[in-house]
# Entry
Amino acid sequence: MAAIDTTVVADWISRFGAAVTEKRDWLTELDSAIGDADHGANMARGMSAVGEKLGAGTPATVDELLKSVGMTLVSSVGGASGPLYGTFFLRMGMTAGAVSELDGPGLAAALRAGLDGIVARGKAEAGDKTMFDAMAPAVDALDEALAAGSSVPDAVGAAADAAARGRDATLPLVARKGRASYLGERSAGHLDPGAASTAILFETLAAAVADSA
Ligand code: ADP
Ligand code: MG
# Structure
């Protein structure tokens, strides 16, 4: 089974940073419709701080790398998304452990722990119109694909597709968590910005894994 080593994880983080920076205006536009127009800026600022931190050298183990990403996001992003994505990466790192590579089930377990961390922190449930609505289907799809015998690149590709569908499915939802919930019914008819950045998170993971295979 293909393994995802620290270099691939670092490549994922770097691609995620580049993609949220490239899509900063779009993420901000989504947040201007149902929030306070800072999601693109928050993600770009946080991931740029992560890039500077990792520019000094990639840590040897997956947990050190992911914990460093998580701590940097928590400390550099003021919005809700900083602590939520920060917790995601911290929990992912804690579950990955001091290893230099992850196999498919190891990656799936780490991502599941990251998702559980977001839930522990933000209490989001399915259909609340948050990043959970893109992430939970992605992690489920990864588990299902691996259980059905898919290769790791194919399984991560299935997770990315599920995240994109989850993002799109937030469009008609009425927000029940975060700033968008203050709008009540008026939050319907807009994509959730955090679900949009989470779809990018899984798209860049799939690309990093596919290119390393
Ligand atoms: P803020 O809302 O503080 O301005 P951002 O704009 O950066 O922070 O992030 C907003 C995104 O955070 C939302 O689109 C949503 O996906 C996510 N979010 C907000 N609250 C929660 C929560 N309690 N649980 C999960 N995700 C949440
Ligand atoms: Mg915002």
In short: The mean pLDDT is 96.
